[in-house]
Amino acid sequence: MRHTVAWEKDTVRLHAEWQGIARQNRIARNEDPTSGAHLLHAGISLNIPIAQTQAEITLSAHNLLNKKYYNHLSFYRKVEIPEPGRNIQILIKVPFKSIL
Questions:
Q1: Which of 35, 32, 33 is nearest to 22 (CA)?
Q2: Considering the entire predicted model, what is its pTM?
Q3: 62 vs 96, more confident
């Protein structure tokens, strides 16, 4: 389950997201149960005019609380490798205009 809150004004957008992952107890034979987790994500986006186009720069952080959790359907869960911890991304989107 994901809950997202966003605020936007002019060229700035802020967002925060809470993600709840349920326990997996109803499992098939030879499968291990997987515990649930609660994750927090956040980010900011800026629209910046460059030449005659509008570029978007986004800084986002996932799993801010650095929670150790497993994906029940992942092969890596069986070998006890958790999903990624805290990570930060910078995205830059620049649209290209067609010359034709």
A1: 35
A2: 0.82
A3: 62
